[in-house]
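3.2 Worked example (two chains)
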Amino acid sequence: MISPPRHRDTKGTYPAVRSAGLGFVLLLAALASPPAASITVEQGYFRVENRGGVWWLIDPEGSPALSIGVDTVRYEGDRIHGTGDAPYLEAVRKKYADRDAWEQATLARLRGWGFNTIGAWSDRELWPKGVPYTVILDIADKAGADWLHGRPVDVFDPRFEKAAQEIAGAQCAPRAHDRHCVGYFSDNELRWGPDWRGKETMLDLYLKLPEAAPGRREAINFLRHRYSDDIRRLDEAWQVKASDFAGIETPSESAGHQEDADQFLGTVADRYFQVCARAIRNADPAHLYLGARFAGKVPDTVLRGARAADVISVNIYSFDPRPLVEHVFQVTGKPVLITEFAFRAEDSGLPNTKGAGPKVSDQRARAKAYADYVTWLESLPEAVGYHWFEWSDEPKEGRFDGENSNYGFVNIADDVYEDFARAVTAANKAAVGAHRKSSGQ
């Protein structure tokens, strides 16, 4: 699957490691901080747990760890927009004997750099390789949403719930006994209201759905109930002149409209997360529901709905993730996983004119930004890991959406950014130690 585009252009010595029986290096805290005797460890699959005031991802053998991953680990890389050319693929075909050789070399690099998770949009061929991995289901996208243009899915349409059940049945049920599967993301960076894709609230968007759409009827009935079926009260609150509830067309900037929009958004979020959680858990009760990968800050009404997930996943493209992670945890009470972050270096030879993440001067500055981000993040007891975006650089000509940035651990020729990789290795191996101390005890 092709990963969706990012949208913003601003925005100690580790004592030991072990394989945890998974054939891939997991950074563990158990060796230095054994679990409390009162905790009953359920063997078999990944889960999350609070131990001594610190949240951890618990591996299938019962040991605490962090999910330290990379997104979009793909043999093909990106294709150049408008041409279909795949420069990374061309390079690795020349460099390696076959795809299997590339996979072995890539997994060895990831192990050596302290990574233990295959992130979203990576090749499915990597999943059976004994590596902990995550799966992105794209439930809303496959049920009718348009991610790029911000068109929401109608969560009140019975077809949405049916689609969620079918997708979970096809994608989750076959993995119900796979010890290497960490869990599932239901979607990525859905629109929850005004953002880079438009100014309309979710209520505005639902009122614009086709006349027979269940979501439109739900929005109208919501307003009828809010205003006791009196359109004059709505007109006064919204400062509009609608003749009836079915004829509201003009978005309002009034406080009354915003309050109604916030309330309706909570209803939509509750429905979305309940349907997704139920579908995933019915198909595979053994694995984690990792949330919907929020695009940075979302309204608190959405966060409250996301409590249906086991983990709150957030993409945070900033130098310091702590303020937002702390807020997310304060609202949800659930552990937080960073599912995208990145820094782009101006010495990479790439334009870096389109894509998310702060820009820095060179690879050493990029390395420092990575190390600071990880250290600050894992100083928080609620932070159970982080996934970097992404494995290889984008083409300088731009991928399918025009992005042309230095996101990779390797460039288009599959050569490693050595200064960056060395600092990343040190930061990853120190992450568990920083997290272990996060309780302040």
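3.2.1 Second chain
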Amino acid sequence: MINGILTFYSGLLNGLVEVWAHKFRSLLSMMGIILGVAALVAMVGVVRGMIGEVRDYFERTGGITRLQVESREPPDEQSHIAHLSPGMTFRDVEAIQAGGTLIDLIDPEVSLGWRRYTYAGQSEHAPLQGVMPDRRERLQLQMREGRYIGDLDVEWASPVIVLGGWLGDLFFPNGGAVGQKIHVHGQTFRVIGVLENLGGPESRGWFQRQNRICYIPITAAMKRFSGDDRLSNLSVRVAEVAFLDDALAQMENILIQTHRGIEDFAVSTMEEQLEEFRRMERTFTFALGGVAGISLLVGGIGIMNVMLAVINERIREIGVRKAVGARGSDIFIQFLAEAVVISVVGGLIGMMASVGFVVFIREVIDVEQFRIALSPPAMVAGFLFSAVIGIASGIYPAVRAARMNVIDALRYE
């Protein structure tokens, strides 16, 4: 046992000496390992960034406790009476408030698209939405200045507005927005608050889009812009996850009444969406990781070729060692250790290269839609995989060296 450890240690030292003595050849043999590890880490970073953005959106919009109401075509047997349904309207909200005992938050929306905002000679375009006070809690919005829309604002259809952080920065860079009047598509609104930017000053993706949205009371949106009580969106939050199925049934019962028996709506949970996110993450990880794995396998083949060439160069040395008493297992361990050195050194260089690769992607390529971050587990996995590849690629050359006939080796010129 001790002899084997000493032989392996000696092989590691010999491997380092060989790598240093033949730098260019060793670098070429490591190139597949280096590129494979760097590609694996970078690709996992890209996937984590993409999925992380989606996950942030999922959690910010209510997570697993959210129920989403969507309009849909009624079934064929109801198509001839579909006109009897008023569609998704504010009456749905009032019915849920009255009978939705398992619902603790209601967030309807009237989406008014992009509108023109004018203040002190400046004009900008940004999305405008009519909402209720629960929107702030569902999206965890923070106020930079002033207050959010209140129940009385909704009841009186008050002409008040809460500016998104992006527009607040443009119109009121030094603060003082509260109480000011701005014009929104020809209508005058009084600013009651400015939202804090989500995701920090360099927000991207969903956070960046969210920071542009401005809010007015939902009743003011209906009265001043849309002219009716139709909703663009309706989300609710269940009090507890354990009540999810019961709340779903309760919502469907309420809406079937407000829609006069017409099933032109669908109430969906976020469980399917969450599972879809997870499935997408696994698919991307395995697909992109597989590409990097192929690079590592190619690197292993390169190491095997180099080790076979090294053995051909050192046939007489092998013969001499066997002649003075070295066993086949000693020869095997020595050359296997040398292969491991090449792969491990390549893996370490690959880990360092992956850092530069990720920085390059982050700084040079346009990645506004998602983050790219280093993944320590991916770096460790890439390094361990490179070590395994080194062992696997070194076995055949080491076996060939161990089985070499001592007489033939000594006669080799």
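3.3 Remarks
The CA atoms of residues 4 and 12 lie 12 Å apart.
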